[in-house]
UniProtKB/TrEMBL annotation:
It comes from Anaerococcus murdochii. Its cofactor is Fe(2+); a divalent metal cation; Co(2+); Zn(2+). This is Ribulose-phosphate 3-epimerase. Catalyzes the reversible epimerization of D-ribulose 5-phosphate to D-xylulose 5-phosphate. The keyword Metal-binding applies. HAMAP family: RPE (MF_02227). Binds 1 divalent metal cation per subunit.
Amino acid sequence: MVKLSPSLLSANFANLQDDLDKTKGLGIEMLHIDVMDGIFVPNISFAFKVISDIRGKNDYFFDTHLMIEEPIRYIDDFKKAGSDRITVHYEACKDLRKTLKAIKDSGMEVGLTAKPETDPKLLLEYFDLIDLILVMSVRPGFGGQKFMPETKATMTLYRKYIDENGLDIKIQVDGGIKTTNVREVLDLGVDEIVSGSDIFGKDIGGQIQAYHEIFKEYE
Ligand code: DX5
Ligand code: ZN
């Protein structure tokens, strides 16, 4: 089944564990963790302390999306904090191949993504090194933005490339996804859905159930 990765960014940090507890027992396997440095994107979120604090209480696969310059500097720190997968931006790495290899060598899964305006074909030469390709369907930096329909062409391109080459790579979509538009991207054959404001800004458990009901249509 398609997997839902609720994005922590839209949770209430004054009651973070309360919000996380509301995601439990509903078939969720992973949590999307957005780290921003105020340089690669015009926003700053959180990092190691929050991740390691929630690690002890939440038995989820930590799907960590790094919107930071030169993430290679911090791979060991994210590993120690409890990340299970690190997704880095194409534009943020001077030596992308070395960065992706360092993530793999640390024992974590490897994800790659790019801003919506970057040519998606530029990422294909790195597909030998990744477990996940993330299609950003908003400009990275903030939750609650509007889905950019032009990014659907990128999802189609990657689905075709992965299938034609028999690759074991998942496609994730992140940004502006809601229960009301998620079918648009599920129709394109994506594997993982990130959703922040549409889950944590609403009835958390009810929204998770609503997504899973929709995913069943694609089994
Ligand atoms: C945006 C982040 C997203 C964000 C998605 O830069 O990468 O993960 O939390 O939030 P929504 O689902 O509200 O667009
Ligand atoms: Zn994200």
